Each structure stands twice: as C-alpha cells, then as structure tokens.
UniProtKB/TrEMBL annotation:
Family statement drawn from the similarity comment of this UniProt entry: Belongs to the acetyltransferase family. MAK3 subfamily.
Region (Disordered): 1-67
Species annotation: Lobosporangium transversale
Protein name: Acyl-CoA N-acyltransferase
Gene Ontology CC, one term: NatC complex
Amino acid composition bias (Basic and acidic residues), ranges on this chain: 11-22
Extent of Basic residues compositional bias: 1-10
Domain (N-acetyltransferase) ranges: 69-220
PROSITE patterns given in the database record: GNAT (PS51186)
Keyword Transferase recorded: yes
Pfam families attached to this UniProt entry: Acetyltransf_1
Biased composition (Low complexity): 28-47
UniProt entry keywords in alphabetical sequence: Acyltransferase, Transferase
Length: 227
C-alpha cells in the first residue's frame, strides 16, 4: 500500500490489493504485545529485544542526536501527527476513514517514533493482521511506513518495522506482506535486511503505471518433510 510521495495511485486502484479490501473480521484485534512500553534511543534501536528502557541510550550520550521515543498507538490524539507525516512522505491522500480502519481495529499494530524534545511524530508504521486466503493463514500487512526526511538513515524505519513484526508475530502471524514500488530501493533494502523476500511483481499496480513488488516475510518455521 505504501509508496513514496512522488507516486500516485487512485482509490480504485487501491482496491486492487487483496490487503486493502477491508475484509478483516476483527480477528486481528486480539494482539498480545504491550505497546505502552517506550523505547528511547538516540542512535536508534537495532532490534525489538531492545524494548527495555533501562538498557536504551539516554539523551545525554555522545551522539548529539535528538532522542527518539518509540511508542505504541494509543488514541486519536496522535492521529494528526501521524497524518501530517504520512501526507508529507507518501503520495496517498488517505481519508480519515482509512486511518481509522487500521487504527481502530488493530491499535496494537501501529507504532510511532517521537522526537522527544520537539514532541513530534517523526516516524510511523501502521499494520493489520487478519485471516487470508483458502489456506486461512494469519497474514500481517504493513500498510504504511514513513520516516520524516531529516530523520532518515538513523534506523528509525527499521526499528519501527521490527516492532511491528514482533507485535504481529506475538499476535500469531504466519506471514507478513506489504507492497512497495519496484523502484523504491531504500524500502526494498530495508525489508530485505529483515528477511523479506520478493513474492510477486504486481504489473502497473500504481496509477502512474509503475509496478509494485509484494514483499513477504515468513514468520513460522517450515514444516519438514514427512518421514
Ligand atoms: C524507507 C524509509 C522508511 C526508511 O527509513 P529509515 O529510517 O531511513 O531507514 P533505516 O535507517 O532504518 O535504514 C535501514 C536500511 O534501509 C536501507 N536504506 C534506508 N535508506 C536508504 C537509502 N536512501 N538508500 C538505500 N538504502 C536505504 C539500508 O539497507 C539501511 O540499512 P543500512 O543503514 O545498514 O545501510 C524512509 O526512507 C521513508 O520514509 N521513505 C519514504 C516513504 C517510503 O518509501 N515508505 C516505504 C513504503 S513501503
């Protein structure tokens, strides 16, 4: 679903994706992760195992970078900051209903990176988890990911993705998917670093005629051959 600002996709095209058809039944609501934990870092966390504030760097470490707090979505008071960021960095003029569709049903699967000093949202990830296909797999879906331009290359994006993966795994995800423009090298590199593979190329997926890649992460170990 997510793509960089320069690219446009119509709402009708949005419906191309199985993952946008709103067929969630609410099964994704039962996520288990505690998202109220705040991760604080000035160098940005490398993995979800760093979800312990006590072990995170403090604001006074040697990096000189403003400290970033990673928090779970809590309520609509955070929504304006999220929308401003996403509207800056992603082309999609999502309606308020799109945000609410994800955030109200799967509040535990969305995370924000906050510049603590400015109390400003500088990174966001929005996800979903529901039953997919005839195999009835538990499919996580990363719908939106964006990091404010001046905060990029500090591992904020990868930290948000790791938090979302962890939350979806804890909620029982068998696999996690997303779409991105096939030319979006930074997003593809980020996701591949985390174990995502290119699953499908979606021909002319976006309104501008650009193809998308569907990237997929398998969350469960494969079942071995029956002996
Ligand atoms: C994609 C995006 C979220 C990355 O956020 P970020 O915080 O800068 O990413 P990170 O610092 O965590 O980078 C992690 C990895 O991603 C890759 N990456 C990030 N930016 C990159 C760039 N400009 N060029 C190439 N690779 C890049 C690298 O592999 C990087 O690992 P490295 O630092 O070891 O080289 C950010 O560039 C963004 O918001 N882009 C616009 C919106 C968008 O494209 N969203 C994704 C749609 S699916």
């Amino acid at each position: 679903m997510t793509k960089p600002k320069a690219k446009k996709k119509s709402k009708s095209e949005e419906s191309k994706s199985d993952d946008l058809k709103g067929k969630g039944t609410g099964k994704g609501n039962t996520t288990a992760i505690a998202t109220t934990t705040t991760i604080t870092t000035t160098t940005s966390a490398k993995s979800s195992s760093e979800k312990d504030k006590a072990t995170a760097p403090t604001a006074n470490d040697s990096t000189g970078l403003p400290p970033i707090d990673y928090i779970g979505y809590e309520s609509e008071h955070q929504l304006q900051g999220m929308i401003s960021l996403i509207e800056n960095d992603l082309s999609e003029p999502y309606s308020i209903y799109t945000y609410r569709y994800f955030l109200h049903q799967w509040p535990k699967l969305s995370f924000l990176a906050m510049d603590r000093e400015k109390d400003k949202c500088v990174g966001v990830i929005v996800c979903r988890l529901d039953i997919h296909g005839s195999a009835r797999s538990n499919r996580g879906y990363i719908a939106m990911l964006a990091v404010s331009k001046e905060y990029r290359k500090r591992r904020i994006g990868s930290t948000l993705v790791l938090m979302a993966i962890e939350a979806m795994k804890q909620a029982g995800a068998d696999e996690i998917v997303l779409e991105t423009e096939y030319t979006n090298q930074s997003a593809i590199a980020l996701y591949q670093q985390m174990g995502f593979i290119k699953d499908k190329r979606l021909y002319r997926y976006y309104l501008n005629g650009v193809d998308a890649f569907r990237l997929k992460l398998f969350c469960k170990p494969e079942i071995g051959p029956i002996s």
